């Protein structure tokens, strides 16, 4: 019998070949500003031990004393083998520190997030999560079974749009306070205001803020954090009202079914918390050092994000470049590993530099010197290879949101051809592109839009998904009702997220026009909002299009959607008076740019997935969409035609 676990070796080989296999560095020293890796003492710039307490003698003594007094392990879940004064007194101190009524300990921050989210929301509920939240929040959202709506990073307006579009029994908004890979801070005041106004619960993850920044205001009813970072120990906790904490003690499975954190960890965290209050200069020093280091690295030419706390992300781009920079730094005596996808989005690999209170001026000067010597050597401009197409020329809204929602002024306007053309131009511009047709209708007549997008867009089948295929050529909600289906927007969101994980841009083709219903509670505009995507409006060029396009753009804007532009489809080779004057008029009426014109193409057949042999969509779409469409030239040319007609 072959070993049923033999697949592990194969998968590990694959990870190794893709450069994605992880190997932790082997340390032979405690945590600190300097560590010993394979016999070499190096400067460490990657620990979350922000206040330099993990190896502080006072924490070590507290841990040792608790072990001697209480033993090495907690024995079982506190609900089973009882709780100690040690645990309760840390919980009370944490509650005071966060300005809340009570707090509950977990064995880690990860378990605190997973257990709390799943205890607060379930199948009938919805959870709204910032797109850059920590993995433990993402896992908690998934495990809860609630509908998950991902809103744009640190964007209260987008959160508001999502809350307005999605109703549920209970609604929970979750956000990191300081984002672990970006180092920036959520606008908690505005987020709390939106939640308060729209009646949603708000949970903040203070993992990278505790000990450094003031606790969140009362608008956040649920404050989660960890003992494992600034507090120098390990474990997690949630602080809030007495009722919330009591609910978690009864219903958070990662509390109920998990052995309590051990006495040593609890006592060390209590000492860490005492030092946070007694020595506020530690936090001040870290915050100032992080800002100084960011300035210094910025002036060396690195792309550095401004730090809100102790995390200074140095953006590199490709994973291999980040790995190479990290290797050069290690050579220069500085330990800071590369962070690559899937931990961060594709094309944004980085070094996540962190500063701690244990770093001296001398350490930081050494860090800057090492970064100066590790800078990539730039070749003279004449020999620098030009990228095939500049990914940076792509509309930043597409890069940021990870896709585009292609909608239309109505059905049959040519969305599928535009979606395929877009998939093709984005791929050609160097973006890993995927396609999603959330709901295919009219299958009885052989409609297969995704098939055409795949063929004409040149996408691999693995990056094309159509979660629902309905027989009747009707609005999705109507066709679904007739066929006994219930469309679950969660399934569409899950398909989108799975495509997005492996790609830079997902081209989503809606069904019909913008206000066509997906189900009883959501229309295409709501779906685009739930996916946090900007929209591209496809319109026909002839008589009637002015009113239809203006209505569509107005509805999209009113629903808070970002309209990238209008694409005219099936533009005739010989335009009549309407076609010649409509492009300019559409721009004037809607204030939205014409970002593409697709001509009638011989040999192109959506129904049969046929594409002419030398198919090139680049002349049809604007540079922001990966093409070469010359908007000004086109408008000049058609207006001349208009004068001639
Ligand atoms: C934002 C955030 N939340 C939660 C956690 C999990 O905390 P812990 O390491 O205590 O499990 C981490 C880091 O690990 C984090 O960065």
How does this model look, in words?
There is one protein chain. The protein is an alpha/beta fold and 645 residues long. It has a seven-stranded mixed β-sheet, sandwiched between helices. Strands 18-16-20-15-21-22-23 form a seven-stranded parallel β-sheet, with helices on both faces. A hairpin with a 2-residue loop joins strand 1 (34-37) and strand 2. Helix 5 packs parallel to helix 6, helix 7 (156-165) packs parallel to helix 8 (188-198) and helix 12 runs parallel beside helix 14 (361-374). It is globular and about 90 Å long. 52% of the residues are buried. The model is unreliable at 379-390 (pLDDT under 50). The structure holds pyridoxal-5'-phosphate. The site of pyridoxal-5'-phosphate has 14 residues, from helix 5.
């Amino acid at each position: 019998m072959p070993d049923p676990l033999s697949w592990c070796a194969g998968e590990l080989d694959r990870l190794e070949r893709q450069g994605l296999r992880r190997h932790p560095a082997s340390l032979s020293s405690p945590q600190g500003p300097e560590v010993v890796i394979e016999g070499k003492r190096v400067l460490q710039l990657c620990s979350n031990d922000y206040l330099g307490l993990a190896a502080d003698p006072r924490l070590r003594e507290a841990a040792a004393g608790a072990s001697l007094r209480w033993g090495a392990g907690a024995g079982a879940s506190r609900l089973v083998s009882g709780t100690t004064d040690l645990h309760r007194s840390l919980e009370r101190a944490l509650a005071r520190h966060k300005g809340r009524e009570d707090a509950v300990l977990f064995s880690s921050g990860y378990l605190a997030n997973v257990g709390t989210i799943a205890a607060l929301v379930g199948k009938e509920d919805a959870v709204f999560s910032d797109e850059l939240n920590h993995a433990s929040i993402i896992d908690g959202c998934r495990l809860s079974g609630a509908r998950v709506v991902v809103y744009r990073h640190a964007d209260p307006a987008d959160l508001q749009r999502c809350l307005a579009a999605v109703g549920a029994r209970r609604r929970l908004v979750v956000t990191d306070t300081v984002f672990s890979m970006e180092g920036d801070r959520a606008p908690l005041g505005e987020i709390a205001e939106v939640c308060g106004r729209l009646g949603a619960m708000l949970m903040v993850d203070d993992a990278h803020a505790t000990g450094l920044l003031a606790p969140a205001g009362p608008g956040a009813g649920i404050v989660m954090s960890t003992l494992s970072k600034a507090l120098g120990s390990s474990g997690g906790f949630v602080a809030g009202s007495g009722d919330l904490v009591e609910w978690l003690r009864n219903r958070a499975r990662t509390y109920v079914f998990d052995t309590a954190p051990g006495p040593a960890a609890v006592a060390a965290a209590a000492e860490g918390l005492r030092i946070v209050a007694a020595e506020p200069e530690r936090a001040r020093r870290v915050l100032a050092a992080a800002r100084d280091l960011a300035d210094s690295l910025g002036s060396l030419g690195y792309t550095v994000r401004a730090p809100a706390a102790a995390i200074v992300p140095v953006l590199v781009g490709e994973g291999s470049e980040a790995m190479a920079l990290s290797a050069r730094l290690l050579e220069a005596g500085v330990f800071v590993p590369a962070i690559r996808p899937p931990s961060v989005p594709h094309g944004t690999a980085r070094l996540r530099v962190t500063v701690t209170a244990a770093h001296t001026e001398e350490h930081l000067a050494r860090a800057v010197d090492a970064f100066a010597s590790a800078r990539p050597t730039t070749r003279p401009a004449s020999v620098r290879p030009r990228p095939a197409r500049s990914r940076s020329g792509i509309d930043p809204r597409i890069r940021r949101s990870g896709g585009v929602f292609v909608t239309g002024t109505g059905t049959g306007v040519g969305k599928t051809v535009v979606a395929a053309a877009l998939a093709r131009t984005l791929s050609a511009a160097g973006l890993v592109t995927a396609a999603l047709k959330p709901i295919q209708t009219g299958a009885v007549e052989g409609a297969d839009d995704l098939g055409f997008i795949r063929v004409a867009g040149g996408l691999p089948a693995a990056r094309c998904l159509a979660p629902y295929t309905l027989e009747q050529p009707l609005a999705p909600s109507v066709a679904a009702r007739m066929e006994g289906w219930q469309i679950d927007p969660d399934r569409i969101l899950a398909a989108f997220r799975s495509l997005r994980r492996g790609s830079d841009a997902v081209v989503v083709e809606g069904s019909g026009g913008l206000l066509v219903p997906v189900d009883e509670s959501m229309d295409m505009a709501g779906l685009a909002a739930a996916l946090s995507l900007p929209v591209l409006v496809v319109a026909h060029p002839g008589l009637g299009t002015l009113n239809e396009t203006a209505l569509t753009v107005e509805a999209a804007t009113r629903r808070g959607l970002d309209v990238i532009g209008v694409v005219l489809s099936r533009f005739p080779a010989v335009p009549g008076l309407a076609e010649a004057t409509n492009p300019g008029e559409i721009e004037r009426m809607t204030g939205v740019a014409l970002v593409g014109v697709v001509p009638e193409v011989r040999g192109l057949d959506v129904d049969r997935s046929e594409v002419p042999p030398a198919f090139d969509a680049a002349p049809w779409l604007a540079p922001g969409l990966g093409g070469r469409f010359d908007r000004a030239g086109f408008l000049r040319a058609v207006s001349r035609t208009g004068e001639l007609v």
